[in-house]
Amino acid sequence: MMRLALVAVLVLVAGCGRQAKTPGQPLRLYCGAGLRPAMTKLVAAFREATGIEAEVDYAGSGVILARAREDQSADLFMPGDVYYVDRLQELTGNVVERTTVSWFVPCIVVAKGNPKHIVSLQDFYREDVKVAVGKPEACQVGRLTVELLEKAGLDPAALAAKQSLTVNELGVWVKMKDVDAAVVWDAIAANLGEDVEVVSIPLEQNIVSHVVLGTLSTSPQPERAAQFAAFLAGAEGQAILRANGFRVDAP
Predict the structure, then answer these.
(1) β-strands 181-185, 106-111 pairing
(2) Which domains are present in the chain?
(3) Three-state secondary-structure class, residue 163
(4) What is the pLDDT of residues 207-248, one digit of tens each?
(5) Which of 22, 152, 170, 248 could be a cystine partner for 182, CB 3.0 to 4.6 Å?
(6) What are the DSSP calls for 11-60, one per residue?
(7) Can you give the pTM of this predicted structure?
């Protein structure tokens, strides 16, 4: 009888031990597509360090804003600019914490050798130049391109351009020579390799995007969400961002 009781206790203890080690649900993160080159590595490093999984939904910032707004169990929201974090807070009141992660600086990418001799946004209006821009309603780079053109005294409505839902696709189009030029983030340009060249936009004419991670009140596991935010802002997370061409210091 005593032996059976001992076995029962051991089974109970073993069962409790397994339950304690069972991971929770993966964190649900809505992330701007332009952050993908670094985020895939950040998620892997976070999993290695903590054992916590994160599932990431990538899309243009306008698209993930709509998705995060409707998701009542979203943990984290990281678009291409703090504008969308503020907008989500206005719409839902769900943002409980903001964590600065990175900065995006817009630039012009052209084919290697710059065969069309593009030197500024004014060249986007030349008849011999085929350009692409982000769709303003869908992604931050598109919304910001409109502001950049207006700041340069140009009419965004008069620009004949192919439009994309993500900044990543814009870079690929230039790399594949489907278009001659596009406005993308400096981090995207850095990840395109030697098939493209960068034409910088002068700082006084430029507009920088501030990338902020929003921690959401809808998170079923707020402690884990806070861990992820701290990891991105910490030394290891910032080193991963820097190694993948992302700015971790304000320009």
Answers:
(1) antiparallel
(2) 28-103+209-243 (3.40.190.10), 106-205 (3.40.190.10)
(3) strand
(4) 999 999 999 999 999 999 999 999 999 999 999 999 999 999
(5) 170
(6) HHHHHHHHHHH---PPEEEEEEGGGHHHHHHHHHHHHHHH---EEEEEE-
(7) 0.87
